[in-house]
Design brief:
Blueprint (H helix, E strand, L loop, with lengths): L1 H33 L24 H10 L13 E3 L6 E4 L3 H14 L3 E6 L4 E6 L4 H9 L6 E9 L4 E7 L21 H14 L5
Antiparallel strand pairs: 1-2, 2-6, 3-4, 4-5, 5-6
């Protein structure tokens, strides 16, 4: 009997030990899980990259950078994207395709309140009345009959990247005042003045939207 009791008791003790180990391990895990490690919440002590002092540029370097900087495409006026053709007082170029150039020319004409007597986009032509420059032309158009003004031809010819605009005195049969009693057979040609007016407007006033 004592031997049997000892055997049964031994088995009980042997079976209890694993339960105690498991319980003890579970307590340790719970304690670890409930412990908060401030290292993962407070990042003030984390390493930061060293601060690099801004490079000081010389006046020569600044000038070089400005020259190499891309030209602005937006803002007031087309700037260097419009230029006069050297050796010709009656032609300018716009660094845009035909569609954009036609749009800019329409806006330049409206901006200067030039009267358009005719236009044909398929042929790339505007016919406008012009007697002087800027305000003088507007004043002349306000106080006089448009038939007394001289008509000029604006020929717009473009490619994918650049468009040429040529200004010339319209032919006699294209003049709006052909039937006017005040018509002159030899009107003064102010094509160069009209070109200058359109160039200044495109260069300084017409925004590239």
């Amino acid at each position: 009997m004592h031997f049997l009791y000892f055997l049964i008791g031994g088995i009980t003790v042997i079976n209890i030990k694993p339960a105690i180990v498991i319980l003890f391990s579970a307590c340790i895990l719970v304690a670890c899980a409930s412990t908060e490690d401030s290292r993962y919440k407070d990042n003030r002590n984390l390493e930061r990259p060293p601060e690099v002092a801004p490079e000081k540029l010389t006046a020569e370097q600044i000038e070089i950078n400005e020259r190499q900087a891309p030209k602005r495409k937006h803002g007031k006026g087309l700037g260097t994207d419009v230029y006069k053709v050297e050796g010709s007082g009656h032609e300018l170029r716009i660094k845009r395709g035909f569609d954009e150039a036609w749009h800019f020319m329409s806006r330049a004409i409206q901006y200067n309140e030039l009267k358009t007597t005719d236009q044909d986009r398929s042929k790339g032509v505007f016919y406008v009345s012009f007697n002087g420059g800027g305000f003088l032309n507007s004043a002349a158009g306000f106080f006089s009959d448009s038939k007394d003004q001289t008509t000029y031809l604006l020929k717009v010819e473009g490619s994918d990247e650049e468009t040429a605009v040529a200004v010339s005195l319209a032919a006699k049969d294209e003049q709006a005042n052909t039937n006017s009693a005040k018509h002159s057979d030899n009107p003064e040609d102010k094509s160069a003045d009209l070109l200058d007016l359109l160039y200044d407007t495109l260069h300084d006033d017409i925004k590239d939207e």
